[in-house]
Amino acid sequence: MSDTDESDIHTPPYTTLAILGATGQLGPYILDALSEHSLAPDLKIRLLTRRSSPNLAISAKLISSHPNLSITLHEIEYDKDKDTEKQLVQALDDVEVVISAVGDPCLEADTQVGDSDAEHCGQLPGFIAQEAVARAAKKAGVKLFVPSEYGYPSHTIPADSPMFLVGKRLFLDFLREDLDLPWMVVYAGALPKVEPPVQPLPPCSTSTALPDPPFVTTRYHLASWVVHLLLDVLPEMTTWGIFRILGVRRDVLTEVSGGENWELYEG
C-alpha cells in the first residue's frame, strides 16, 4: 500500500459512484463500507440494476438500510432492442467511478449460459452487462472503472489461455486498449462461501508481519479495502493500479503478452 499521507486529502477524491451488481454477494458489503466511512454524507451513489421484481425489491431494501447514503436506483434493460447504451449513459451522467460487483460463477462446475456453453467467464450474463456498462462509462466521461476481479490475478493469464478466467484478462485489455478507460484492479484471493462474523483487517504494511495464523480475507475486508482505496488514497496512486489484500511484499510482475511491467501492491 502507498505511504500517502491521508491528512493531505481534505475532500474525497471521488464523490459520485455507481455500483453494478449491488444485489449480489459482494455489492451489499460495498454499500456497508461506504455507509461506515466518515465521508459517507458527501457521497452520491447510483445502483444499476436489471428491471426485474426480485432485483428491484432487494435494491429497495438496500437503499432503506443505508439511510445515511444518498442512493438513487437506475433500472436498466439489458436488451439490444431496448437502447441499453442510452439508458446506461444517462444513468452514468456525472458519475466519477463505476464499481462492478457482478457475480463470479467462474469456479462453479456449471458454466453454461442458457443452452450453450460459455467459452470463458466474459460470456456469462453478468460480465456481458459489465462490458455494456464500461462502453457507456467511457461515453459518459467516467474517470475510473473497478472491474469485477477480486480473486485470482487474472492480468497474468495469457490472452490466448484456455482458462475459463481468461475472460477477465480480456476485459482488462478491453478497458485499456479499446476504451482507454482507467481501471483499478483489486485482488483478495478466494473468498469464503459463507461469510464469517465481521472482523477488521489486521494492520498490514511493508514493515509489519502477517498475523499467525494469517487472517481469512472476507467480503467485508474486500469491500472495506476497495472503499479505502477510492476515498482515502489520491487518484494518481490508484488509477491503473493493481492492489492486493494478502501479503506484505511489493512485487513487480511482468505482463505475459506485452512484456510491460505491472506494479502489484500488496497491503
UniProtKB/TrEMBL annotation:
Record bears the keyword Oxidoreductase: yes
Keyword match Metal-binding: no
A GO MF label: oxidoreductase activity
Transmembrane portions of the chain: none
Pfam families: NmrA (PF05368)
Positions of the NmrA-like domain: 16-155
Name by which UniProt lists this protein: NmrA-like domain-containing protein
Xref: Gene3D superfamilies: NAD(P)-binding Rossmann-like Domain
Keywords assigned: NADP, Oxidoreductase
